[in-house]
Amino acid sequence: MNKGEQKRQVIFDRFVKNRNSLIDNGFIIGEKDVYLCPICKGVYHSINGDNPLTLEDAPPKSLGGKAKVLTCKKCNNIAGTKMDSYLVNRLKDLSNQSLPKGKEIPIEMIFNDDIFKGTFKINNDGSAEVKSSRKNNNKLRLDEKMKKIKEGDMHKIKLIENRIDFNKVKYALLKTAYIMAFEKFGDLLLFDSNFDVVREQLLNPEKRIYPQDFCFASPYEDKIDGVNIIMTEGIESILVQFELKYEDINRRLIVFLPCMINDIFSITREISTKKQKKFYNISNNNAGYVNNIDGVKLLYNWIKRRKKIK
Description:
Blueprint (H helix, E strand, L loop, with lengths): L2 H22 L10 E2 L6 E2 L8 E6 L7 E7 H25 L7 E7 L2 E9 L5 E5 L6 H10 L7 E4 L6 H20 L10 H8 L11 E3 L8 E5 L6 E10 L2 E9 L6 H9 L9 E2 L9 H17 L1
Antiparallel strand pairs: 1-2, 3-4, 5-6, 5-8, 6-7, 9-12, 10-11, 10-13, 11-12
Helix pairs in contact: 2-4
């Protein structure tokens, strides 16, 4: 077993233990000694197979994330190609827009009606370089145009940006938050019907299923990074805060998830009526609830009390 398989096995065993404990203590009903993919809920008796369990990064690894959860290969591929790739490309665009020194940035050079591809770079001494690309242009047309350019001529350049589907950027943030929440709560999330809409959205990123006002730039500092419970009455929910890092770009974001008391639609409606997105009654159990049965019991007692109030 190589290092990658060893890591997957450790994660597999941790969540199988979590599931067995929840079943033994009457919190969930189901088959023991199995792992469920947190997105599609596919059942696994081992890490390998036709659709093996794979390491899932949250946030994406290229944006500073780490893999602490497993998803099946199919769900991992959907997340990577149809959601995470848009988020990564958005951060790349933001980095290019900041024009960091020493970085060659792809551009379009506009000469009247002709457009050629090239790169733009600001050197450490503050000077700038513009280079044309012979590989990505018609060489004959490019040579002909270069001969006609005179010193002092003014021409436009335009940064080349990725094609971004901003809904899929949001769903990538939703996936990161959900995977981080699963890492903290384990199989409790798989048996809460309020999370069905999260899983349905992640399985169908081409559709708009989840409410739109669920993620924002964070008004908090890094002290609440991770998975938190908002205990304010009426908007009881899970708030996940994380930082995205790409080269010189840092973005700290918050994502709202449902909980066992409120569905996400009622939560986002309540949030939208408030002028600020900052909620002060927040609980952060750093120990998490996976293989922490005492913590699970305390959580369920709090949920029962709140449901009686409602």
